[in-house]
Write a structure and sequence with these properties.
With 477 residues, the chain is mainly α. Helices cover 82% and strands 0% of the residues. It has helices at 2-57, 60-70, 75-105, 111-116, 118-125, 129-134, 138-159, 166-183, 206-221, 225-234, 237-257, 259-273, 277-313, 321-328, 331-346, 352-377, 379-400, 407-432, 439-459, 463-476. Keywords: Membrane, Transmembrane, Transmembrane helix.
């Protein structure tokens, strides 16, 4: 079991690195070929399609993973669970596909893009990734995703040459998604056996999956709705393009910030099962401190290099994305905190009600501020609304658990990260004013920023850094 966990961790780590690297290859190329208007058109149609996928899946992917995991050692039970959830998903997605087609028929713009993205809905209807996650076969998932993403990249560089190739770009993206999900069916017979249809109880899964579905709806409002509202309010896909590409850079950085909560969740769940509340609190406080140590320098680092990064990474057409990236950067800290408190603490300790209410609050804040700010500030207003939404989620969660976890203590222990990160920001921001935007100059700024941050932590005698160094030296000796 320990060996399997180690292998799964290695494959997941490799995939997370791949997720960061691949967009660094394709984003500069696609941004220049399609431009802000093309990127905005794709992002706008994809945001609408995402809602049909969300309501079609009704939380069955997360629920299915959990239910399959419950029956890992029983092939009959796991097969029955697989078919019940699969048939329920096919039914709900079929309804969503019918409504999607009917809706597209009434639209005047982007009909071709929407019809191509019908492949996304079909791909999600046939997606059985949740099964492999439930039986902890991460190797299959990772290898599949790596191969399909590489095929997608080759196709993009081979066939997408001009702005008129937007529909081809969307087809490559949607087609590879469908191809990847279909490939999961090649090995499914090794893990399941046939189950008579009359023994399947499909409806029993409806209520529990809906409970998990509600937080996903709330989260999607302030992660997808912003792009949809920019399009509806401004009727300007170029603004969506500016916003989308800035968000893409933030999402790349988030894979580093949020990785800790994924690793720690099983540990906290185990401690909760053994009623070890003291260790749970200790782990959560330390995780918050580690997260701030990582997210603060990344946040200030992105602010510092934004003016040097955007021109060469996205192209001169995306210069307006600089201000959006600058104001959106605090999301890295806020989402880092909510991941630790939400996924690592609230969900494993069966405090899902607090988590759900916090996501609802975030969606309400985001929706209201979008309506107020987008008409005047366009995509910049949407960025402000997203940051405010994530902050409201953090504040609600931290207030609810204040008697268990004193966040003020965490801030006191973490103040050196804010100070060191801010000094780093001043240094690289001023330096970026004199450096010509290029890959080399951005790399130099990142290296200088990292050095400043570490030197400042040494000057401030940060206990986390010194403690880590002592452990390393002790192990070597």
């Amino acid at each position: 079991m320990k060996k399997k966990m180690t292998i799964n961790y290695i494959f997941n780590l490799a995939y997370q690195i791949l997720i960061i690297i691949l967009p660094l290859i394709t984003t500069p190329y696609v941004s220049r070929i399609l431009g802000p208007d093309g990127i905005g058109a794709y992002s706008y149609t994809a945001s609408i399609t995402t809602y049909f996928i969300l309501f079609g899946c009704i939380g069955l992917n997360l629920y299915g993973q959990r239910e399959v995991a419950y029956h890992q050692s029983d092939k009959i039970a796991i097969s029955k669970t697989f078919f019940e959830i699969l048939l329920l998903k096919i039914g709900t997605m079929a309804i969503s596909i019918c409504v999607f087609i009917f809706t597209v028929q009434m639209m005047n713009q982007y009909k071709l893009l929407f019809y191509i993205q019908l492949l996304d809905l079909i791909a999600n209807m046939l997606d059985i990734t949740y099964f492999y996650q439930g039986i902890e076969e991460f190797k299959v998932i990772v290898i599949r995703n790596v191969l399909i993403k590489i095929i997608g990249i080759i196709c993009i560089f081979t066939f997408v040459k001009t702005k008129v190739d937007l529909s081809l770009y969307v087809f490559i993206y949607s087609g590879t998604l469908l191809l990847g999900n279909l490939s999961m069916w090649l090995t499914i017979n090794k893990h399941i056996t046939r189950v008579p249809f009359k023994e399947l109880k499909i409806i029993k899964h409806l209520k529990p999956t809906l409970i998990l579905f509600f937080p996903q709806i709330a989260i999607s409002i302030y992660t997808v709705l912003d792009k949809l509202m920019i399009g509806l309010i401004t009727n300007n896909t170029t603004q969506i393009g500016y916003y989308e590409q800035a968000q893409k850079i933030i999402k790349l950085s988030l894979t580093v910030v949020t990785s800790l909560s994924t690793v720690m969740l099983p540990r906290i769940a185990h401690l909760y099962a053994n009623d070890d509340q003291e260790k749970i609190i200790d782990y959560t406080k330390k995780s918050l401190q580690y997260t701030l140590a990582i997210s603060c320098p990344i946040m200030f680092g992105i602010m510092g290099i934004a003016t040097n990064l955007i021109p060469w990474f996205l192209g001169d057409e995306f210069i307006p994305s600089i201000n959006i990236l600058f104001v959106t950067s605090p999301i890295l800290v806020f989402i880092g905190i909510s991941n630790i408190v939400g996924f690592q603490y609230l969900i494993p300790t069966q405090r899902q009600k607090i988590y759900t209410l916090s996501t609802i609050l975030g969606s309400v804040v985001n929706l209201c501020l979008n309506c107020i700010l987008i008409p005047y500030l366009l995509s910049f207003g949407a960025a402000i609304a997203s940051v405010a939404a994530e902050l409201s989620v953090d504040l609600f969660q931290l207030v609810c658990i204040r008697k268990e976890i004193n966040f003020v203590d965490v801030i006191k222990k973490s103040k050196s990260y804010f100070i060191a990160s801010f000094v780093m920001f001043i240094g690289i921001y001023l330096l970026s004013k004199y450096l010509y935007p290029s890959v080399m100059m951005t790399a130099i700024l990142i290296a200088i920023g990292g050095i400043i941050y570490l030197v400042m932590l040494l000057i401030l005698r940060d206990e986390l850094l010194f403690g880590t160094v002592k452990k390393i030296l002790k192990r070597r000796s």
